[in-house]
Design a protein that fits this description.
It is globular and about 50 Å long. The two termini are 14 Å apart. It has one domain (7-250): 4-Layer Sandwich (Purple Acid Phosphatase, chain A, domain 2). The longest helix has 19 residues, at 139-157. It has helices at 7-21, 50-61, 80-85, 116-125, 128-134, 139-157, 171-182; strands spanning 27-30, 65-69, 88-90, 94-98, 101-105, 186-191, 196-201, 207-211, 219-224, 227-234, 239-242, 249-250. The strands form three sheets. A six-stranded mixed sheet has the order 4-5-6-8-7-12, covered by helices on one side. The chain is α/β, with parallel strands linked by helices. It binds manganese (II) ion.
């Protein structure tokens, strides 16, 4: 059973949230899987997302830099978002520096030590020949087909109450621990993909943040000169609340 808030409603939440945080918004990092499925044909893209793309384009025109890290559901993005909405698109995690702090930012797919099977699948999905062949499917066939499989995989992956969450055993936390050891100057590792919002100290100097999702949780991270903080948007009240340091927000 799909317990998600309908897509159009979530789009409205996101836009209301954008309006709310706009006064303090200097830069926006979208950590992927914004679309259930996205595939760019040479002359066609999936329908929809008009309000969202329009607002993001407007923000870009107002001078807000927008960074988009593709997720496993939208890794076929090419230059559409850049051309239409002025976003900078990344296909891999990126090391960046803001407010004098180094950080690693990315979607998070394929990084966990348990992601071996997915990494092989991703090599196939991103293979230029496979993409070229797929493009020969008419969009009225190719888009619904991919959307169906995409939804299946998401339903299978979404964490539920039945699967207890142990941050110590989480694949992305394990990745972050290793990566932080190898890169001692990095202060933050910030990812999405897990649909669980939480933070975890992974080395003496480095903290891992998962920003959660906008399917159920409406959580996000805010980076200021003071540091990184997790927040949750409460659509019913059109309000935001900070997450506690040890709080874990997931769909239960
Ligand atoms: Mn993902």
């Amino acid at each position: 059973m799909d317990s998600r808030v309908p897509s159009l409603e979530r789009e409205r939440y996101f836009l209301r949230w954008l309006t709310k945080v706009r006064p303090t918004l200097g830069e926006l990092f979208i950590l992927g899987d914004l679309f259930e499925f996205f595939f760019e044909y040479r002359h066609a893209v999936p329908k929809g997302f008009t309000r969202l793309l329009g607002r993001l384009a407007e923000l870009a025109d107002e001078g807000v830099r927008i960074h988009y890290f593709v997720g496993n559901h939208d890794l076929w993005l090419k230059n559409y978002l850049t051309e239409e909405a002025g976003m900078q698109v990344y296909w891999a995690p990126e090391r960046i520096e803001r407010f004098g702090r180094e950080m690693l930012v990315g979607h998070g797919d394929g990084l966990s030590p348990f992601d071996g099977k997915y990494r092989r699948l991703k090599r196939l999905f991103t293979n230029p020949l496979a993409q070229w062949l797929y493009r020969w499917l008419h969009p009225d066939v190719g888009i619904p087909l991919a959307r169906y499989f995409s939804q299946q995989s998401r339903e299978a992956q979404l964490p539920t109450d039945a699967r207890p969450f142990d941050p110590q055993k989480d694949g992305l936390v394990l990745f972050a621990r290793q990566w932080a050891q190898a890169h001692p100057s990095v202060r933050y590792i910030i990812m999405g993909h897990r649909h669980i919002a939480h933070r975890m100290q992974v080395s003496e100097q480095c903290t891992y943040y998962n920003v959660g999702d906008w399917l159920h949780l409406f959580t996000y991270g805010q980076l200021t000169a003071e540091g990184m903080h997790l927040w949750q948007y409460l659509p019913g009240e059109d309000a935001v609340r900070p997450l506690g340091a040890d709080e874990i927000v997931r769909n239960v």
